[in-house]
Every structure is written in structure tokens, then in C-alpha cells.
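hey m, so remember when u said the C-alpha cells were messed up on ur end? i reran from scratch. heres the input so u can diff it against urs
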Amino acid sequence: MTDTPTPVGSETIEALRHVSVATLATALYKRGLRSQVIQDVRPVKPKGRNMVGPAFTLRYMPAREDRNQLVEFRNPEHPQRKAVETCPPGHIMVMDSRKDARAASAGDILVTRMMVRGVEGVVTDGGFRDAMNIGELAIHAYHSRPSSPTNLTLNEAIETNVPIGCGDAPVFPGDILVGDDDSVIVIPAHLAEEIAAEATEMTAYEDFAIEQVRAGATIVGLYPATKQESLDAFAAWRETNGR
């Protein structure tokens, strides 16, 4: 049994669309959470915009040959097929593929179906088949690498919407995932609002700092802000830029 996830409001979701995974990782690190970035997972094709939404999970286990023939896909209750048809709009399908990309977690037809249904994104620590096609879709997609063999080759989809591990990161249903053009991070749902607010503030300062560095400023006393003159200059910058 798992606790009911904390509902996350639309304002928090929108705020997270404008901060980087790197900034979020630092905010979570301050709270002692060091393993929230999904490792060895990257965009199939960068979108230039953030993926943000609650996690809907699918867990794979090692396939046993007598249980994983192609006939399994005729079963409408097959966990992979059912997950594709029940992942709620705005959510992100997150797959525990045991960090094994030798067999695909899904292909372009299933990912297209999720896109049409309004799913925000798909993430696997394995691989996607038809990756070139998936990269051209509007839906966000993250994986380890392309993989052509069907998932039945090595994986059995066994259950949905349970706690999983994906790329060594713990993922609980309802956790908030944020993906940018670098990687994906998992924010515990109960921390999402405060992390979003802090990351928004951090992003404003980082934007100010990079402007200063480009203009020739030293990072000493600027990043991090250990000198009062840096804080005073930031306050003036915020007022000028409406940040």
C-alpha cells in the first residue's frame, strides 16, 4: 500500500516549466535528496521546452519465455497495453525497464496513442523502438538508447501505478517529473510546491549571474552570492527586469 499522493496545483506545474533540472537537483540536494535524477536517460529528441507532470508507472520484470509470446498482445488486459489506455492526460508514463535497453519498452504506435490521449510524456530507463519516429512526435520522450526488439524479448510488463525504480531514482505514483533537454528529475509530490518556488528564485539569480559573467564579472562573491554588492545589484536587476 502507498499513501495517496499530494495533489499538485496548476500554478506549481506551470512554474516548473521554466526551471532547469540542474536547478531542481540543487534545490533537492539542499533537502538531502541526492538520487532524484534519472540516470542514463536523455531526450529521444530535444523539444526546447520542459516536460512536467505527475508520474504514472509501469514495472517490467525479466521475461519468462512461456509467458511472453506475441499472442500476449491480443489480451486487452495486458499491463503494457492497459497502461497506454489508462495513463491519465497530463501525466507522464514512467517505465522501470531494469536499466536494460536490449529490448524496447514501447514503440511509436503506443507512444502516438498516448500523445493523442493527452499524456504529457514517456520515460524509460530502457530503450524505444522506432525512435526516429518518436523523436518527431510532439510528446516528450526520454530513454537510454534506441532498441529494436519487442519488449516481450526480455521484459514482462507486470504491474502499473506502483512504486518503481527508474534509472536508479525512486518514483512513486503522483511524484512530479520534470524533464528538460538534458535529463529528467523526480520531485516528491509533497515537496513540489516549495521546490518550484525556490527553483524559480534560483533561476532568477542564475539569469542575473550569467549576465554579469558575460560582462566580465568574477564569480567570486557573485556565484554563490556571498558579497552584499552582488545582492544589491541583483535587487536592482530584478526591478529593472520585472523578475
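this time it looks ok to me. Helices lie at 10-16, 21-30, 79-86, 108-116, 131-135, 192-214, 228-241. if urs says something different then somethings off w ur setup not the seq
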